Amino acid sequence: MRILTISAFYPPYTYGGYEIRVGDIMNGLSARGHEIRVLTTKPDHCLKADSKSFSCPVIRRLHGPSRKLRFADRLTTRRLTRWLGIALVFLREVRQDIQDTALIEAQIRDFQPDLLYLGHIMPLTRALMPLLARQPLPIVADEGGSDILLHANVLRNFGQGSIADNARIVVVVQQTERGFQAVEILEIQPPENDLSGLPDDMIHDIVEIQALPLEPALQDRCDGCG
Predict the structure, then answer these.
(1) Which among 4, 5, 143, 153 counts the fewest CB atoms within 10 Å?
(2) In 3D, which of 213, 174, 169, 166 has the Cα closest to residue 191?
(3) What is the pTM of this model?
(4) Which ranges of the chain does DSSP label H, i.e. alpha helix?
């Protein structure tokens, strides 16, 4: 399957987890035999990034946000030139929208993908979605989803003091003004550890220990931990 991936930023030019996640997914799909082409933003040379080779072509020509104020942006910060700066920023965005949509259309015609994969597209041109809506291609929109806040009190109510890395958690979630928050834990599945090569009695002890609920220790400011 030919997959055209469109995403802002791409390793090694990364600001956070979104672009790393998309890169890992593309590496996995490429390893499974799919033909991948990535269309992403221009390199940010302000970031110190080591050179990296990829198993698929990565085209870095889309426009993205800049961490530095450009000339037109600086004009908007001054009272006398504010409206001139706003006009120049508007014209710049229109020009970039035209260039980016033309580039995306050209890549679709050239690559003839079977599927469009949209990664982190929030920083990209706002003309992207209207353009893709006219394409007769299936689209996978994978912006990543929101984080869920898990408070320590909710964890203690379940009888746990901590959670191991890579554990799977089933929770009841409510949406608040600050985002999603877990209100109750229904199940915690411990990570699948590789216990091969250990004696059977040791494996049995490890499994029993992992299944025991943890009771958080209470701290007395005078006497220390009790």
Answers:
(1) 153
(2) 166
(3) 0.62
(4) 17-31, 71-75, 82-111, 128-133, 152-157, 200-211
The b/e string for 184-221 (b: 16+ C-beta within 10 A; e otherwise) is ebeebeeeeeeeeeeeeeeeeeeeeeeeeeeeeeeeee
Conformation bin of residue 145: beta by default, left when phi > 0, alpha when psi is -120 to 50: left
CA neighbours within 13 Å on the CB side: how many for 140?
13
The CATH code that applies to domain 2-141 is 3.40.50
What's the pLDDT score for residue 188?
Answer: 84
For CATH 3.40.50, the residue range(s) in the chain are: 2-141
What is the arithmetic mean of pLDDT over 90-114? 93
Residue 191 main-chain phi, psi, to 5 deg: -65, 150
CB-based contacts of 67: which residues, under 8 Å, 6+ apart?
44, 46
Predicted confidence band of residue 73 (pLDDT cuts 50, 70, 90): confident
d(CA 113, CA 3): 5
pLDDT at 38: 94
How confident is the model over 201-225, as pLDDT tens digits?
554 554 454 444 544 444 454 544 4
**Could you give the strand order of the β-sheet that contains 148-149, starting from the edge strand earlier in sequence?**
148-149, 179-189, 168-176
